[in-house]
């Protein structure tokens, strides 16, 4: 593609955009149980879009130039702090998303320990990949501690034993993404505190819904900034605060803990660069949209939405637990469900394909440690009222997968994968694997069971390398 010589009419451009969007997963209606969060409330999108438009041309690079952004950010941080056990000294920052919040928590911890030449972080094996990304970018070692094979929660004693003199941060999840379980934050944070090490709670998904679950009578373990030893916490607003994409909050227990996160540079002839996040220029649009949605829904609105999603989660959990051939992994305490096969005459990757054909997207997850291959469901308020339909389609999908039988890898594919060295994977070898998977070009086929089964055979380092190669080709013009 090249730019048109003469600009196109606005209505044609919007029509083209609508045509492009027609091939995407649906973002509303509760049919896509990953990636998107739908409140099901009418008018909320319009409010957010209007607020976004009013502030989209402002720039958070300089809060003194746009004091409206400073006011909105402080308002949002104060609301998050009040919800999540913050005290008078608590401070925070609005970021672009959970990954940036987690990366900044790692960076602040690393920067605060300049005396450590080979800093490391201690994480349970279920910690979000964002922490591995932070380690990749900031040259930090990761000490990964296996979780309980039955509950998938962090092992407090093993986490404490992994802390050493080079540890700059300990991480726990509330909840972890893969299984929706809440780690034992209290003993892990206590162990970190005893060693003088920071402890971060990744509450990106649960932070805006677990406090309301507790208010509704659910037994929610202590996990927030009120827990002694917890020094920082991340919570995404574009998840269960139902704000548009692009807003998360990173809270620190006090300003001294946050200070290493900031960046300033006066060593050039231009303006003195001063940043609170990884970004410099930041559109005020997402911030304004989040501020508008938070103020519109208010505490009562979020309590009502939490009640709605709690009801939907309970119904789906109960239905799946009694469904022939399926089982839930762990004891989910939030809105995330991990559904594995309880028989060997079908596989969950085929179930995912069958659900896609029925208009639902359930996210496949590969086996890891004691966690079997499974399907991930992120339940939102929009799923309320469609639970029985989803369960009926899921039962039909399992029946269809049984008729098809489990996906098997031929010996040629298995041996080819076994002989691959991730460090030496060539484009030719990658192309041969695509052909074996029935893919003539780098584009996802309608049915992914065979591709997922192939990836499942590959050990994680090779899977990472294959997917990086896939991504590289995918993001090539004309591919």
TrEMBL record:
Keyword terms: Lyase, Pyridoxal phosphate
GO molecular function: aromatic-L-amino-acid decarboxylase activity; pyridoxal phosphate binding
Co-factor(s): pyridoxal 5'-phosphate
GO biological process entries: carboxylic acid metabolic process
Source organism, top-level taxon: Bacteria
Alphabetical list of Pfam families matching this protein: Pyridoxal_deC
Signal peptide residue numbers: none
Residues where N6-(pyridoxal phosphate)lysine is found: 239
Gene3D superfamilies listed in its UniProt record: 6.10.140.2150, Aspartate Aminotransferase, domain 1, Type I PLP-dependent aspartate aminotransferase-like (Major domain)
Family: Belongs to the group II decarboxylase family. Sphingosine-1-phosphate lyase subfamily.
Protein name: Glutamate/tyrosine decarboxylase-like PLP-dependent enzyme
Species in which this protein is naturally found: Actinophytocola oryzae
